[in-house]
Design a protein that fits this description.
three-stranded antiparallel sheet; 8 helices; 13 strands; 29% helix
Length: 253
């Protein structure tokens, strides 16, 4: 119910960063709409399911997330947050404290300004995400994005996206390539419904661990990267898709 607080629009004006919470998001209909300047310290590009296509991911909004990768399970103490970030979150303190306890996170505690389910994989520099709902698997490799002031930040997937943390861009391209391939989507379509493409697919499909020294793995990663780049530039990518599907079929025998 707090999406309408943490999910924000952001822009730069007179060399200052401004945000406005997306009060209509989430399940809380009584949220105040706040517009104010803020520090960029805990602002990240937000990737939502609707922004993900096969091989493409284009964040449109942002998220205020007061966490650091060194301690992803607990929010930064409120007193240690920058002044404007404190000011913004404090306006919603009563609403945030009324949220339901979830696993080890209790919003009624001193961590009232935290979010649910922030984990180490949330901060992975490279990730593969796929949509919860779709015809087959709709996956994309993601890394970083820019704030309106040009600051580069890790892209944060929302709770409607499943993710696999990766060690490199090559591994992310490889996994996205395998997941988006025609043969894997045929396998998934044979048992899954379009309203439930969850993490259980990883138990059903032959997704090998990426091997940096494998020529076949490298071929898939490079083909997937070519699709991703051509798609981003608006160029034809049909031949790269063909190369990818052939490489994945060869890998799987």
């Amino acid at each position: 119910g707090a999406n309408g607080i943490f999910f924000v629009d952001a822009w730069e004006q007179n060399n200052k960063l401004f945000i406005k919470n997306r009060s209509s998001d989430g399940r809380n209909d009584n949220l105040e709409e706040v517009t104010q300047s803020i520090e960029d310290t805990y602002l990240f590009p937000l990737l939502r399911g609707e922004n993900v296509g096969r091989f493409s991911a284009d964040p449109e909004h942002f998220i205020v997330m007061p966490y650091v990768s060194a301690n992803p399970h607990t929010p930064v103490p409120f007193a240690d947050l920058p002044p404007k970030t404190q000011e913004f979150l404090a306006k919603f303190q009563a609403t945030l404290k009324r949220r339901t306890k979830f696993r080890n996170f209790d919003p009624a505690s001193a961590d009232w300004h935290g979010l649910y389910s922030v984990l180490q994989p949330t901060f992975a520099s490279h990730k593969v995400v796929w949509r919860e709902m779709g015809l087959g698997i709709i996956a994309a490799a993601i890394s970083t994005g820019d704030l309106p002031n040009g600051t580069e930040r890790i892209v944060i997937p929302d709770h409607k996206l499943f993710l696999i943390p990766c060690e490199s861009a090559a591994e992310a391209d490889f996994i996205a390539g395998v997941l988006n391939s025609s043969i894997i989507n045929l396998l998934v379509a044979s048992y899954a419904v379009s309203t439930g493409i969850s993490s259980h697919v990883l138990d059903r499909i032959p997704l090998p661990k990426f091997q940096y020294g494998s020529g076949s793995h490298k071929e898939i990663a490079e083909s997937a990267r070519e699709v991703r780049l051509r798609l981003k530039k608006g160029k034809d990518y049909a031949s790269a898709i063909t190369d990818l599907n052939l490489a994945v079929g060869k890998l799987l025998g």
